[in-house]
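Tip: read the tokens left to right.
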């Protein structure tokens, strides 16, 4: 795990972008250069894979295994081209989602074999796993926040899944935090953003 590689996880509307923006300001004020990344995407190849993955026209067509492999293809390229070189230069990398999204969505959400996914993630990421903060929020509240948020575009293929799917994803995230107490910190995302940020920073600095 790299100290300056930090990831925010959680279902949509849990507040990842909000916390990343605060974290970016804090790290910059500490004199660090900051690079923000968003999955899937971030390189020419990974963005091309993103278009395939999120295209609503592929709903009901794409197999779960295809989805699993495409997410990891996009991630491997992002690590190779962007994340590793940045970390090696001492740049802090802030990720809006990373490997644990695959475990939560394709593993717990879609029901693919968890051990196979963990092995695949090690192939994709080697030792490059970030310090991860998981924003935990009820699905109903995440939906409410997304509906209020006018800056959001049309729901993509994954966002179009039903509440039962996102309940499984949320439980998956809770499980991941339980299994990895050192590297994955679960935060109550129903609290005000400033409270969440304070807690996050205390874990980061502690
Ligand atoms: P994500 O990146 O996880 O999809 P965002 O950071 O975009 O989530 O937040 C979704 C919406 O909820 C935004 O309108 C944001 O202002 C709001 N929001 C974020 N964090 C909180 C919070 N802790 N309490 C209430 N509203 C929040």
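Filled-in amino acids:
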């Amino acid at each position: 795990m790299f100290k300056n590689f930090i990831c925010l996880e959680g279902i949509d509307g849990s507040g990842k972008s909000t916390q990343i923006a605060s974290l970016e300001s804090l790290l910059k004020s500490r004199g660090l250069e900051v690079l923000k990344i968003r999955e899937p995407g971030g390189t020419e190849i990974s963005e091309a894979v993103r278009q395939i993955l999120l295209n609503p026209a592929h709903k009901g067509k794409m197999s779960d295994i295809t989805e699993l492999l495409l997410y990891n293809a996009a991630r491997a390229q992002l690590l190779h081209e962007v994340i590793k070189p940045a970390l090696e230069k001492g740049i802090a990398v802030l990720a809006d989602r990373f490997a644990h999204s695959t475990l939560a969505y394709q593993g717990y959400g879609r029901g693919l074999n968890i051990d196979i996914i963990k092995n695949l993630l090690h192939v994709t990421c080697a030792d490059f796993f970030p310090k991860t903060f998981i924003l935990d929020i009820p699905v109903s509240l995440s939906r409410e926040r997304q509906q209020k948020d006018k800056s959001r575009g049309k729901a993509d293929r994954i966002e179009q899944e039903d509440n039962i799917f996102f309940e499984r994803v949320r439980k998956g995230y809770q499980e991941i935090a339980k299994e990895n107490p050192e590297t994955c910190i679960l935060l109550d995302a129903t609290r005000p953003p400033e409270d969440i940020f304070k807690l996050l920073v205390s874990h980061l600095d502690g």
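The radius of gyration is 16 Å. The longest helix spans residues 64-88.
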